[in-house]
Amino acid sequence: MSERTVFQSIPNKRVLTTTAEASVYDAACIMTRANCGSVIVVDADGAMAGIVTERDLMTKVVAREVDPAKTAVSEIMTKHPRFAMPETLVSQALLIMKDGGFRHLPVLAATGKIIGMFSIRDASPKELSEADRQIEYVEELEDAVGY
Question: Which pLDDT score is estimated for 141?
Answer without folding.
Answer: 81
